[in-house]
Please model this.
Amino acid sequence: MTPFDITQFQPKAWTILSRAYAADRVAGTYLFHGRDGFGHWPLAVALAALLNCDKPVRSDLPDGELRPCGTCRHCRAIYNLNFQGLLVALPLPPVKTSDDAIEITNEILANRRREPFCRLSATATTNIPIAAAREIKRSLSRKAPDGITRLALFDRMEKMRADSADALLKMIEEPPSDTVIVLTAERPESLLPTIQSRAQRIRLERIRPDAIEQYLIQNYDLSEKRARLLARISDGSLGQAIELIDSGEESDTSRRAVGFMLFKALLTEDAPSVVAHLAELLNPRDRGEAEDILRLWQSLIRDCSRFAQVGEEQELTNIDFAADLKRLSTHFVDSRVAAAMSARIKISLADLGLNVHILGSLTALVLRLKASVEAAR
Ligand SMILES: [Zn+2]
Model:
């Protein structure tokens, strides 16, 4: 695998880590948190590489913060996930024997070697096995080999059972010498408070669309247009963009993602930029796509409105967008907004059946919907 340049994907998180390194103040335990697909794993791997790199180099970050060279003996071993100082515990699907566990772990690692940004949530995992955690604890109780800083990564710590996590508390509080522990989680609050308080939090952010676009073009041989589309609809998660690659241009998943992205823009961005997104993302000749998107909007409006009135997550139809819908529901506190928007969309759906100009009709609709949202403010 070609070493990725982590500074392109998580510049803020990397700045914190590399400054700590330069000042010789690397924390004993870090907690990397943020949505799956933002790059927790690549960030941890890059940190392991920096800690062991023979000759770190200056990066393109504003202050030229250091990054691993990617080519020295240690860097190569680490980026190939074949380094004795890199210890990982991963959540696995239920397994019968420890041999099965090893086999599945190796499969996951092989995938990560190929694609460090791939998401864990794409696979049916349940728990970090206690045996894996114990094994790491045992290895760390021995002295680190000379000249090596170990990094022990507990990926998706929220997937470790509380009693197993409890057994690691002492180690997390005070890692052995020459050792850095990295925990990852989507939400820090999902971890035991005793664990949260012992780790330095590093928040991962949405990856910039242009960085996602470049990565997809270079590593997946996508056209610029397709790469840009996926970058736009994946909402900063490179892992999600990668999953959407195989979904095909006309597929439900990517259409759904486009529809949702536009819906979100409708509520949070100004009219000209929503219209610009429309022109960019919509196929002006695909009537079916336009209709699908409008039907999705109707269903999203119903969800937001219901959540604003009742506040029950279980009531949501579009559960895959639950977190966003809850946030967006604040626009629907006044139930007349939903009613006005739905009525407008209904008219446009009828128009679309009458051979109207697709993009023109949707642009007009967006302006009217925008007006309904603004009126309620
Ligand atoms: Zn190096």
Observations:
- The pocket of zinc ion is lined by residues 53-55, 68-69, 72, 74-75 (CB under 6 Å).
- The chain has two domains: 6-203, 247-375.
